[in-house]
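Progress against Task 2.4 (sequence-to-structure conversion) is shown through the following example record, which the project officer requested during the mid-term review.
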Amino acid sequence: MMDWTDRHCRYFHRLMSRETLFYTEMVTAPALVRGGAVHLLDFNRAEHPVAVQLGGSDPAELAEATRLCVAQGYDEVNLNVGCPSDRVQSGTFGAVLMNDPGLVADCVSAMQAAAGATPVTVKCRIGVDDQDPGVVLPDFIARMAAAGVSRMAIHARKAWLQGLSPKENRDIPPLDYPLVHRMKTAFPALHLSINGGITRLDDVLDHLAQGMDGVMIGRAAYHQPADILMQADSRVFGKPDPMTDPRDVARAMLPYIEAHVAAGGKLAQITRHMLGLFTGRPGARQWKRVLSENAHRPGAGPEIVENAMAGVVMA
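Structure tokens generated for the chain above:
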């Protein structure tokens, strides 16, 4: 979700769900430690609960990055061992680390020593390239558990590091949900979440009913945020939903947008994350068109969002 789940996106999504745990884009440890880019960790306190997602492969550097994250107040520090993008592989981050579980164990041990009471978690794939997931995944999880990790999220697809693009790696390798479910049976003491190809709350409830501790949703929650998030609190957590009408969500964003623009920010930096708010509802096309055509214009502000809402009709 690099370039997607930034702080504006998370603030917007938080209006629809108070209980769901949100994750940042992946931030690399070298950028924080060597590059001094601590501003990448900025977030709004309204986003809690929120986890920061780190990329890296040097235990000492990840430990220092973890200290920076904990100082910022994140609820969880997550090590990404699942992203297959070329720029991540070139830095020995992400899914390529599935080939070196010993190094990953060293990384999370160092991170935990730096994190104190803040949980350190891992997100991984079921394997990469020619690995046999039925052999590799349980060994990987066992090594993480031995290193002290108690929470993991597992993308139920292999990642092909050569021959498939990041987009193709999200769709082409087949999903193996039963394998991930078997991992929960094999490691009952661990908190395991399943990820990959999950697009409906009904699917979330089905995975939870089969014994998974959590379900992670990425692009579906981004493209159809109201469908995924607006009933998550009531259906998944048994808590009241904060809002039940997407129009109220759009209106609630107006003060945030006004403050951002007044501080010199651009409207499109926020509204690019809001395009899918009315997906599947009458007026959704006009909503997207008005925002897409006008949000980049000089001086654009909250009035553009109000104009875009004018054509939205709720049943």
